[in-house]
C-alpha cells in the first residue's frame, strides 16, 4: 500500500512538472480520464507558440445555418465552460455518474473528439426507437403508457462543433421533449472549437 | 462748488475703474504667457533627455528607423506562425478492449444500428 501511494505521488509529481508550464487552471495541470478503455491525461499544449490550424481555425461560418448560439437555452438547461467540462469529466464521468456527449456525426467523432466523450449524433433525435434505447442506457426507466421515470437519469453534458453549432441544441431539445430532466443536462456551448483553441487534449480513433 | 466736487469725484471713479481694468487685463496676459511656456521638466535633470527624445521622434530618419524596427518585429511574428503545431490528439484503436457492458459500448451499438 505504501509503495502504491509513493508511486502515485511520484507519477502525479512527474506529470505536474510535465504540464506545469501551461496549466488548465492555477491549481489543475492535468486530469486523468478513460476513453474506450484507455487512460489519457487531459492537459494543455505546452508550446506557447502553438497556433490553431485546420478546420477549427475558421472564424466565420455561413449564417443562416451556423449562427451564433445564445448562452441561455431558455429550457432550464445550464450552459457551461471548459473548467466545468473538465470538472464534470473528473467527478461525474470518471465515477460513472455522468456522460459527456458529442452530438456531431460519427465520422467527425472518430476523426477527433474530447477524451471520455461518447457519440450520439444529433440526427438520431428524430429516431424515436433509437432515442428510446439511448434514454434507457442513460438511466431512464420506461413506464407504462410511454411515460419515463427520470429519477435515476445520469447527468449529461452535450457539445458539438462550436458556439455557432446547432447540433447540441437539437439533440438537447429532442432529449427534453422525450422527458429527460432539463436539470440533469448541461450544454457546453464553446464546443470542440473552443476546446481545441485552448490547446486541450483530444483523441482520434484509428 | 458742489457741482465741481461732483465732477471731480466722477472723474476719480472713472480713473480708478480704468486703472483696475488695465491691471486685470495685464495680469491675464502675463499669467497666460507664463502657463503657455510652463514645462514640468524645466527644473529637473530630465529636461535635456526629454527634449532629445522628442526631437528624435520627430525627425524623418528616426521615423524610418522605427518602420525598419517594426518590419523586423513583423518578421519575427511570421517566423512564430511557422512554428510547428504540437499535435495533442491521442490515437485510440477502434478495436480497443472495452467492456461490452460499458455505457460507451452500449451507445455505440445503438448508434451503429440506427445509422
Commentary on this structure:
- The complex is a heterodimer of chains A (206) and B (115).
- With 206 residues, chain A is of the alpha/beta class.
- Chain A has a single domain (31-197), classed as 3-Layer(aba) Sandwich (Oxidized Rhodanese, domain 1).
- Chain A contains six helices and ten strands, in the order H-E-E-E-H-E-H-E-H-E-E-E-H-E-H-E.
- Chain A has helices spanning 2-18, 82-93, 106-111, 128-137, 167-178, 191-197; strands spanning 31-35, 38-42, 78-80, 98-102, 118-119, 141-142, 148-149, 155-159, 185-188, 203-205.
- In chain A, strands 3-9-8-4-5 form a five-stranded parallel β-sheet, with helices on both faces. In chain A, strands 1-2 form a two-stranded antiparallel sheet. Chain A has a two-stranded antiparallel sheet with strand order 6-7.
- In chain A, helix 3 (106-111) links the parallel strand 4 (98-102) and strand 5 (118-119).
- The radius of gyration of chain A is 18 Å and the shape is globular.
- Chain B is 70% helix and 3% strand.
- Chain B has helices at 2-36, 47-58, 60-81, 103-114; one strand at residues 90-92.
- The longest helix of chain B has 35 residues, at 2-36.
- Chain B starts with a helix and ends with a helix.
- Classes of the chains: A alpha/beta (206), B mainly alpha (115).
- Chains A and B meet through strand 5, helix 4 and strand 10 of A and strand 1 and helix 4 of B.
Secondary-structure blueprint of this entry?
The complex is a heterodimer of chains A (206) and B (115).
Chain A: H1 2-18, E1 31-35, E2 38-42, E3 78-80, H2 82-93, E4 98-102, H3 106-111, E5 118-119, H4 128-137, E6 141-142, E7 148-149, E8 155-159, H5 167-178, E9 185-188, H6 191-197, E10 203-205
Parallel strand pairs in A: 3-9, 4-5, 4-8, 8-9
Antiparallel strand pairs in A: 1-2, 6-7
Chain B: H1 2-36, H2 47-58, H3 60-81, E1 90-92, H4 103-114
Amino acid at each position: 500500500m505504501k509503495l502504491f501511494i509513493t508511486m502515485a505521488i511520484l507519477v502525479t509529481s512527474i506529470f505536474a512538472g510535465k504540464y506545469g508550464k501551461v496549466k488548465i487552471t492555477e491549481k489543475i495541470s492535468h486530469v486523468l480520464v478513460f476513453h474506450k478503455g484507455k487512460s489519457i491525461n487531459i492537459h494543455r499544449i505546452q508550446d506557447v507558440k502553438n497556433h490553431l490550424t485546420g478546420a477549427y481555425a475558421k472564424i466565420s461560418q455561413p449564417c443562416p445555418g451556423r449562427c451564433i448560439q445564445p448562452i441561455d437555452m431558455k429550457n432550464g438547461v445550464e450552459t457551461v465552460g471548459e473548467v466545468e467540462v473538465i470538472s464534470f469529466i473528473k467527478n461525474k464521468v470518471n465515477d460513472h455518474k455522468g456522460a459527456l456527449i458529442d452530438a456531431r456525426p460519427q465520422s467527425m467523432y472518430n476523426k477527433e473528439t474530447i477524451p471520455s466523450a461518447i457519440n450520439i449524433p444529433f440526427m438520431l433525435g428524430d429516431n424515436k426507437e433509437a432515442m428510446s434505447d439511448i434514454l434507457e442506457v442513460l438511466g431512464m426507466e420506461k413506464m407504462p403508457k410511454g411515460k419515463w421515470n427520470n429519477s435515476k437519469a445520469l447527468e449529461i453534458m452535450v457539445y458539438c462543433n462550436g458556439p455557432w453549432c446547432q447540433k447540441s441544441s437539437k439533440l438537447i431539445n429532442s432529449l427534453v421533449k422525450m422527458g429527460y430532466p432539463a436539470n440533469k443536462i448541461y450544454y457546453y456551448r464553446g464546443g470542440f472549437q473552443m476546446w481545441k483553441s485552448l490547446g486541450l487534449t483530444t483523441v482520434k480513433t484509428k | 462748488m458742489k457741482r465741481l466736487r461732483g465732477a471731480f469725484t466722477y472723474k476719480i471713479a472713472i480713473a480708478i475703474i480704468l486703472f483696475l481694468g488695465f491691471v486685470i487685463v495685464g495680469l491675464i496676459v502675463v499669467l497666460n504667457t507664463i502657463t503657455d511656456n510652463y514645462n514640468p521638466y524645466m527644473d529637473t535633470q530630465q529636461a535635456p533627455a526629454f527634449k532629445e527624445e522628442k526631437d528624435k521622434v520627430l525627425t524623418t530618419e528616426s521615423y524610418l528607423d522605427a518602420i525598419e524596427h517594426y518590419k523586423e518585429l513583423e518578421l519575427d511574428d511570421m517566423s512564430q506562425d511557422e512554428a510547428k503545431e504540437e499535435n495533442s490528439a491521442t490515437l485510440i484503436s477502434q478495436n480497443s478492449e472495452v467492456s461490452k457492458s460499458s455505457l460507451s459500448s452500449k451507445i455505440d451499438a445503438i448508434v451503429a444500428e440506427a445509422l
